[in-house]
Amino acid sequence: MHFLDGANFPENQPKLVITCAPYGPEWMPSDFPEDIAVTMEQQIQKAVDCYNAGATVLHLHVRELDGKGSKRLSKFNELIAGVRARVPDMIIQVGGSISFAPEGDGETAKWLSDDTRHMLAELTPTPDQVTIAINSNQMNVVEQMVEADIAGTSLAEPAMFHAYREMTIPAGPEWVEEHIRRLSEKGIQTHFQLANITQLETVERMMRRGVCNVPLILTWVAIGGGFDQPNVYNLANFVRGCPDGSVLTLESSMLNVLPLNMMAIAMGLHVRCGIEDNIWTQDRSRKMGTVEQIEQLVRIAGEFGRPVANGQEARAIYKIGTFYKDADETLAANGFAPNRPVLQRAAPQLKVA
């Protein structure tokens, strides 16, 4: 991305898209009973409340009545239908891991099988987006957490801590390419959840081969444990690698969330918040629910002078419903340099109309 003179002026930036992650599948309801929705009606209402507070993208997971994360696609269908009926303009983003959770005490937290994850393309009604990881990777979500982050929660229990510490992401190239193909055929946008710039480079190579003809809508997930540490050097390196046609959201965990989101607001990028990422105020004096986190970001964006996108504006910014016909169109639309023509020795140049 290029930051020309005036790049920090709100009149030169897109409106702010706020993604909310209110379902927090790593927590048990007892960890934050005031905010964790359990019944289907509560889960639908949580989405409505988040939308009314200013969030236009819903990162969606589902709970069973026992409070555990659901792995049943029928439950996802039910929640998607309920949210679509109540807040039709909200962008529904299904977490591609669905419910990464240990099967039993002390077991490693596991994502669903490849075949089951492919079934996300068959959800009815179809979501707007499904998130996808690129390249199999460690996802130790507790690595950069401190004792105060998990004190008094289920993650402080040794077996649960171990389970999430040992979590990995299965995302090999054959599965990724097939998953993107299936999602695209169903009109579902791929939302890339990337740990570092090497994964972004893999996405670019897929686009150059013509196997990933989609907009580059992505989130930089800076949570440590196999992902980037949320510091300004890693952020700058990742942003520099993003082409101008991409749409970038920043994500982190615990007390890193708010500072990173403030950077995103200032830079013209987009934000994500919610109890899946953090449950504390910055001084840890109390827990902070998703709606309050959204309201905080809306207030801060107002201080920056940056308007918050409504549902229709967020859909336009996120290019919902847009797909490309081939590698050339994909590279051009996303702002990458074109593929090198056959026999051309010089570096490829951006095409000028």
From TrEMBL:
Alphabetically ordered keywords of this record: Metal-binding, Transferase, Zinc
Pfam families (UniProt xref): BKACE (PF05853)
Gene3D superfamilies linked to this entry: Aldolase class I
Translocase as UniProt keyword: no
Species of provenance: Hydrogenophaga aromaticivorans
Keyword Transferase: yes
Cofactor: Zn(2+)
Protein name: 3-keto-5-aminohexanoate cleavage protein
TM annotation in the entry: none
Listed PANTHER family: 3-KETO-5-AMINOHEXANOATE CLEAVAGE ENZYME, 3-KETO-5-AMINOHEXANOATE CLEAVAGE ENZYME-RELATED
GO MF annotations in UniProt: 3-keto-5-aminohexanoate cleavage activity; metal ion binding
